[in-house]
Amino acid sequence: MPTAFHKVILFGKRHREKAMVSTLLRLIQHLENKKIEIIIEKETAEICGIKNHKTADENQLAGLGDLIIVVGGDGSLLSAARAAASQHLPVLGINRGKLGFLTDIAPNALNEIDDILAGKYLQEKRFLFQTDIIRDDKILYQQTALNDVVLLPGDIAHMIEFSIEIDQELVCVQRADGLIIATPTGSTAYALSGGGPILHPSLDAVVLVPMFPHKLTSRPIVISGNSKIKILINKQTKALPRLSCDGQARLNLKPEDIIAIYKLPESLNLIHPMGYQYFATLRDKLQWESKPY
Amino acid sequence: MPTAFHKVILFGKRHREKAMVSTLLRLIQHLENKKIEIIIEKETAEICGIKNHKTADENQLAGLGDLIIVVGGDGSLLSAARAAASQHLPVLGINRGKLGFLTDIAPNALNEIDDILAGKYLQEKRFLFQTDIIRDDKILYQQTALNDVVLLPGDIAHMIEFSIEIDQELVCVQRADGLIIATPTGSTAYALSGGGPILHPSLDAVVLVPMFPHKLTSRPIVISGNSKIKILINKQTKALPRLSCDGQARLNLKPEDIIAIYKLPESLNLIHPMGYQYFATLRDKLQWESKPY
Amino acid sequence: MPTAFHKVILFGKRHREKAMVSTLLRLIQHLENKKIEIIIEKETAEICGIKNHKTADENQLAGLGDLIIVVGGDGSLLSAARAAASQHLPVLGINRGKLGFLTDIAPNALNEIDDILAGKYLQEKRFLFQTDIIRDDKILYQQTALNDVVLLPGDIAHMIEFSIEIDQELVCVQRADGLIIATPTGSTAYALSGGGPILHPSLDAVVLVPMFPHKLTSRPIVISGNSKIKILINKQTKALPRLSCDGQARLNLKPEDIIAIYKLPESLNLIHPMGYQYFATLRDKLQWESKPY
Amino acid sequence: MPTAFHKVILFGKRHREKAMVSTLLRLIQHLENKKIEIIIEKETAEICGIKNHKTADENQLAGLGDLIIVVGGDGSLLSAARAAASQHLPVLGINRGKLGFLTDIAPNALNEIDDILAGKYLQEKRFLFQTDIIRDDKILYQQTALNDVVLLPGDIAHMIEFSIEIDQELVCVQRADGLIIATPTGSTAYALSGGGPILHPSLDAVVLVPMFPHKLTSRPIVISGNSKIKILINKQTKALPRLSCDGQARLNLKPEDIIAIYKLPESLNLIHPMGYQYFATLRDKLQWESKPY
Fold first, then answer.
1. Measured between CA atoms, how close is D286 to chain B, in angstroms?
2. Do C198 and D218 touch (CB under 8 A)?
3. In what order do the strands lie in the sheet with D148-152?
4. Last residue of a domain, which of C88, C119, C150?
């Protein structure tokens, strides 16, 4: 049974943008009028120059609020997702005028926000990836991702060579420009440009999309969301690849590095207005028809 | 805990083929030597001219045996799958010399068969589709499928126009040559030629692959295996489509017909030799590499 | 140096449609006011119930007029193309409110039509296919096509098996649902849905697009427009294919039939308004961007 | 009428490889026995430690020989192609045991080489690209390519934004990871992994293949080989792209840089043994069938 929200944490984009700031200020005004307690995420407050409000570090939000509202595009929500999931805070996304897959509230839809605060909303779980980069049997680096983990070409003009293992079973040794490993959430982002299928967000599944594979018989593979995926950079690979999580944090890899990808125990709790339909968003974004021709 | 098998039902191809008959006869000899009780599926007995054995109709196998062995290709196993699933009989597939996705025992691998009969095997569940064709609110026709349900163009040179609904939510109205709805088992069959992804057989999921869609933004969609899928043939469609289940039984459809597709409650119990690996079969069939280049 | 047009032959759609008839009548009125001589193609006159004008059979237009104006969509222009090419008459296409690849004049753009009649226009050559169906060494049937020749599945649920030869060199033996052979004009029609590339209309080339090929390494192949293409239906093919030219005239084929496809000596002379740009049409139809994001 | 060859220039790979050196030495021996005059390309001589032969710089070969023989893979032939084209020397490619698209003579096929030297061969023209990088209205850099010119992502995780112009007509503004511009020769190399079509080598055409385009309606476009292509890096692009010609020489680009790509006046004269068939090579490389199934 959904509960009402009384203390709201506000997140913005990671760089100053006029439209975002004005939406944020209008939202603050609206929430204050409704006597909702407001906390501004610290970096957001700095970027937007908001001073007369309580702020908090993105890693110290637990207990302070009961809902995170993100103002920005899908990219901004990706940034907030990790903090939200690990601190068990639900997230609502307000876009900047253009419907997002994750930010599905229009900037002027204050009515919809009111309904949600009053406890009238839909909630949906979205899982995240945990990624470990293992070198010499030690975890060198860890990162989370809501959309995708991407193995990318490094500097030199050669294909990357790597092995893929799923649940300790070899899938194949692949020569390719790279590999996209996407959650259902990420299946409509970069993986879609690469020819991957759309995975319904309710699906507990992961898709592996090879990028420009040498073998023309390579295809996207959909596996269980509970799979443990391992990518092993081959010893003799000439092109040193990099790794990117949700389009951020590119880390340089070396031959014999292992990338382990598996589901993060905590998932993201995404809030939608009543009447939200996934396929309606998909139709809007991909210009599919909803009426007979 | 796997049990040993003592009474075996033998299924062959649906048309006489020399290699199949000789494999079947050799297998009968081998099973007799091992004192395994043998029942021959009636049509198989007729096609192969096998006379001195107990036979049984494919719909009256329950209680007679504890394992079905199919001799043929993946297509033969598809034919036996419905009888096997509804009568809760596990199935083992013996190929004709060429590895199949479903028939993974070589015709001469009598050792592997002995191990399986002795209780040393892996088993795997594969779900089937139930398909209802609904006209004027009545179910006109029902069919099952292990691989796929395919909406195909009928006679005239126009695209089909239909709506797709999943769990009562509209996905889109589509103009296309047709639509493939495939189980994970079927994802490596016809759907793969149509650009669909590979779904791991352990995945409880279904893929919808549009065939030559009018909208270039149409993409394969992967949804939960528990989804109720409805295809509604549009009123004004000029091309009358047909429906095919596992490549069989093409039924002519009319405007306003509804095709409902959902999971059959009984699933197929597929038997594999110990050491079976799905991805090894995939590598073999698609010529993927298993060693560094 | 372009010449002005004084005698215009009018073609409409092949079935009655209100918007088409009213555009046609408005056009007749406009041309009469300009003292342009008008001939109505016979079937068009009958379909539209136009009585007080000179009519002519589509095969007996040579010498009667100096320009064909087609009112309808790209499909209507396809129908008129053969008559136009063989009788050396240039063609102008007027659409029904939605930009076509071939019919690029809006129904209300009478100014553009006036300019064209006055000799201010661009002209472009588009080649057509000649297709011979050969059985027992005799030509059984001949057909022309501006867009494409398509080898299609017949009734039974099996892949077609055929060989492709180009200039007497074997390309491959293919198992597929069918094959699309498209001109540059047809490359943005059915072939595009099948994953084929866009061929610029100025290119003297042909593309072969396999439909749902069995081999995942099959790819569209672009060859010279002067190539002689031969498709040989294999002896043992179980599925009897059909052949379609520009989406019309499906002919049933038999094993060992040969389909020969080559360029028709006469090409179509397509008229465009000044300022016409192929890529502008493409951007409009495929919603590509023309401005920085 | 083909002429016999008497003075042969030998080219090897750009790094030492045992198999290549031994093939080269065996070939030298064979040619000496046949009294053919031998010139070793300077870098090849150094890499292979060949001392008792006349050597020449790759840019000063004109007049010294009448045929270049390349020992290596297709990559080695790419390196030699520019020198060969500009100095009007025909090229023959000897592979290292695995059939190449360009290097189609097996290392032990001395008979075939003898026939070719005696004047029994086929020759084929392959065109090359000239690429100018223009900054502030000046040509900053020029490069040639036999396979492809590739616009690649630079370091940052953003799509590149660029405009494409063909013969001064805007094609579109594109957001993508990059763009491949390939000759027919290059259409079976990197462009094929990216979903491009195969262009027959006799075709005077170029294909543009978008890499992971943002717009799902983006498609490979085939244009005339005589087209002048311009890629304009957009002012506001955040990701600085790089440019690669035949997989070499990655140059960093800046916003507002212009890349002009057009046909080099001199083409490569590629020598094949009698009986060479392009489609036979294609079948071999892509495992297409040549016999009925």
1. 11
2. no
3. C198-199, D221-224, D205-211, D178-182, D148-152, D242-245, D248-252
4. C119
Q: What is the dihedral of CA D113, D119, D125, D128, to 10 degrees?
A: 50
Judged by a CB distance cut-off of 8 A, whether residue A293 touches chain C is: no
Same domain, B136 and B114: no
C-beta atoms surrounding A276 within 10 Å: 16
> How many structural domains is chain D composed of?
2
* Residues A12 and A20: beta-carbon distance below 8 Å: yes
In this structure, are C160 and C234 located in the same domain?
yes
Interface contact A216-D192, CB threshold 8 A = yes
Q: Which two tokens mark D38?
A: 């031998």
Interface membership of A213 toward D (CB under 8 Å): yes
Which of B119, B145, B163 is a domain's end point?
B119
- Are residues D113 and D154 part of one domain? no
Residue A217's domain is classified under what CATH number?
2.60.200.30
CATH number for the domain spanning A27: value is 3.40.50.10330
pLDDT > 70 in chain D, percent:
98
B212/C211 CB distance under 8 A: yes
Q: Would D139 be classed as within a structural domain?
A: yes
Does any domain span residue D54? yes
Helix (H, G, I), strand (E, B) or coil at A91: strand
Is B125 at the interface with chain A, CB within 8 A? Answer: no
Sequence-separated (6 or more) residues with CB below 8 Å from residue A292: B161, B163, B173, B234, B235, B236
Whether D239 has a pLDDT exceeding 80, the answer reads no
Nearest to D172 among C197, C219, C288 (CB): C288
Helix axis angle, A18-33 to A110-117, nearest 10°: 50
How far apart are alpha carbons C56 and C67 in whole angstroms? Answer: 14
Strand partners for B248: B245
DSSP D219: -
Can you list the alpha helix ranges (DSSP code H) found in D34-129? Answer: 42-48, 74-86, 110-117
Q: What is the mean pLDDT of residues A19-41?
A: 94
A177 part of the active site: no
One domain, residues C85 and C182: no
The domain of B167 spans 128-265
CA A159 vs CA A212, C48, C56, D35: distances in Å = 9, 62, 64, 42
Query: Looking at beta carbons, which residues of chain D come within 8 Å of C200?
Result: 166, 221-224
> From CA B149, how far away is CA B127, in angstroms rounded?
13
Helix (H, G, I), strand (E, B), or coil: what is residue B287?
coil
- What lies within 8 Å, CB to CB, of C126 at 6+ separation is C81, C146, C183, C184, C185, C201, C267, C268, C270
pLDDT tier, A250 (very low <50, low <70, confident <90, very high otherwise) = confident
Query: D219–B219: do the CB atoms touch at under 8 Å?
Result: no
Residues C192, C113, single domain; the answer is no
A63 with A105, same domain: the answer is yes
Nearest alpha-carbon partner for D160 in D97, D235, D237: D237
| Residue B59 one-letter amino acid | N
Residue D272 within any structural domain of the chain: no
**Residue B1: per-residue pLDDT:** 58
* Same domain membership, residue B149 and residue B255: yes
Outline where DSSP puts E strands in chain B: 7-11, 37-41, 54-56, 67-71, 91-94, 121-126, 129-135, 138-145, 148-152, 160-166, 169-176, 178-182, 198-199, 205-211, 221-224, 229-233, 242-245, 248-252, 258-263, 268-273
Q: Rounded to whole angstroms, how far apart are CA atoms B129 and B227?
A: 11
- Tell me: the pLDDT tens digits for D206-217? 999 999 999 999
Answer yes or no: is D274 within a domain: no
pTM: 0.95
Give strand pairing partners of A70. A11, A93
| Residue type at C293 in one-letter notation | Y
Instruction: Please list every residue in chain D whose beta carbon sits closer than 8 Å to the beta carbon of residue B287.
Output: 287
**A156 and A203 housed in the same domain:** yes
Q: What is the mean pLDDT of residues A218-230?
A: 98
pLDDT < 70 stretches in chain C: 1, 155-158, 249
